[in-house]
Amino acid sequence: MKKSVLGFVIDQWTVVPPVETADLSGKTVLVVGANVGIGLEASKHFARMRPARLIIACRNEAKGKVALVEIERETKYNGCELWIVDLANFASVTAFADKFEREGGDLHILVMNAGIVQPDYQLTTDGWESVLQVNHLATSLLSLLLIPRLIAAGKMSSTPSRIVIVSSGFHYWITPAEEVKASSKPLGMLSSQEWCIPEHMQSRYHESKLLNVLFVRALTDRLQSVTPLSVVAVNPGFCHSQLLRVWSEGTFSFFKIALAIKKRLLAWTAEQGSRQLIFAAVGGRDNEETMKGGYVSLGRIEEVADFVLSDEGHKMQDTIWKETIDILTSVSDKIGQIVRDYLVVPDSSIN
């Protein structure tokens, strides 16, 4: 599928479907990136469904506590917990996963919503370009580390568990550079200072959202069909949120004015965007096979970008998967064991 600018405008002017609901009694839900915007609004919707536990994972404890109070005040739900994790620090992610192994129990729904936009080249303490680490590597790391808990919950439940990874419609508008597609280690190239010139950094967020789609499809390709776990990518749409605050702050610029106009004319509220996350988490239960590896937008499964479906897209998907696993295996010795115990070598692509 191709998505034109006109198609984007039409989507943004489309009436957003009402929020999906489900009975979450006895279930545990974890939302990563939940203190503001669509993550906070999604957490409120989950709270209204009364899960046994709702864990909101935030980077900033003070902001997380404010979100916790807001969720409890608006929903009258008192089962919400605040946990701290920083995706810009691999040690924080592995510590979070270790804590969940000790204290979290089974996990039925994982929503990976945390993400950043960073126009300038910045390295994390782990030595990776920050957007690449937060939006792809650390998101993939935590998702993989929590797979044992998700599968255990799925086996005990009448419905498969879900991993929801927040992507974006921007993945339609990015095709990796020829040098990146040809590289045996594209992530290393994308993270290098030599590659991250200002021109390339303009598309970094778009690239990270494409990586999210590739990861969802690659992981689904490696889960046995009988595994009680579905992995879903979701497009929340263009929303009012703090994601683009780095562009909104600072001195006067024509880009800042254009962004403000674009928001005024096209942006959904954060609550409207959060409905897409909820559908990806609890919707489509009447056709679970369609949800597996699917891409949710406007409350339904949509076809992904033509590049993703192409032969070169699938080749890059496999290359990115291998490099991601190699990188994350060096971060946590649990990754290799999880891959061996829960995943298989794929024998076909996702159509």
Automatic annotation (TrEMBL):
Keywords: Oxidoreductase. The keyword Oxidoreductase applies. The keyword Nuclease does not apply. GO terms for molecular function: oxidoreductase activity. It comes from the Eukaryota. InterPro entries: NAD(P)-bd_dom_sf, SDR_fam. This is Short-chain dehydrogenase. It comes from Suillus fuscotomentosus.
